[in-house]
Please model this.
Amino acid sequence: MAKYRIAWLPGDGVGNDVMEAARIVLESLNLDIETIHGDIGWEFWCSEGDPLPARTIELLKQTDCCLFGAITSKPKEEAEQELAPEFKSKGCVYSSPIVRLRQEFNLHTNLRPCKAYSGNPLNYRDDIDIVVFRENTEDLYSGIEFHPIPERLRTLLREEHSKMKRFDAVASEDMAMTLRLITRPASQRIIRSAFDYAKAHGYSSVTVVEKPNVLRETSGLFVREARKIAREYPEIELWETNIDAMCMWLIKNPQDYGVLVTSNMFGDIISDLSAQLVGGLGFSASGNIGDSYAVFEPTHGSAPKYAGQYKVNPIAMILTTKLMLDYLGETEAAARIENAVKIVVQEGKVRTYDMGGASSTLETAEAIRAHL
Ligand code: IPM
Ligand code: MG
Model:
């Protein structure tokens, strides 16, 4: 049996294109790896009523970690329309497979490095090195939502919270609600991951990004935990910034920031913002990491209009492969990938369309492979 068994989930859209690029790089590293294909994505929603079939979950359980490309998701009405006729009346509800994987495998830490590689014409500046730690399992993503709001819940909320009174005149069918659930254990875990990472990689600060002046209980809990944990790391400074101000500071002085730690929704937002500062989604890799399993995926989506055209930038996917190798302890191979990416970006001879070039996805992968 191979040393590492990796679930290989291209998904759909450009997921296939970029995973093919990742394979070119991975295979030339000569590691003892077996990849096992798994079904996931839009076509399985349409044909089976589930974009993440149970057999794929089982496959993941038999592997060391998973590499995942991209998948399409569409709003409720469109999703229902595209469902095969035999599933239309079965009450299938589309929910994002990646969010489900994060929750089902308790992949609590979403690690999103956003580093500027010099020579990239898309960089906002060349000295940016931001690493986002996003809590990955709860907050507004807990999936606890209501529309309409059940009467019993309304009554209870009215009894428990005076601010509900203001909504008395609104009918339950005219209200939707998503629960922002933040727990102490999950907050502690992500904050600790951020501090451990900062310590291991020589960052002098960790910035906690929340909104405790308004979200006094949820963001409040998160920030209070950050202050407690920060005391265990006297060599690292804790900075506190509100999410809105953080967006502004990241545009104004991104070079001042290193490790950022935040809850799920805010992390979703600032990781896209940070990615754009270093060349956009074509450069941003991510890991969903739990205690005993991890799923690695580029931050970008499936870009269906480019599917199969081998046009999109594979660097995000290739850097994602690098993160996976770090996780597996293959740090030397991981460093070789990053170094090869650095050289290709610096040289500027091979560039995909987003960087103003005309090279294909696979030509870019080949160029990176040549520098391994
Ligand atoms: C991300 C994506 C996902 C998210 C979507 C595809 C559900 O935007 O990984 O950042 O919101 O987490
Ligand atoms: Mg996102």
User: Anything to note?
Assistant: Residues 208 and 217 are 15 Å apart (CA to CA). Residues 184-200 form the longest helix (17 residues).
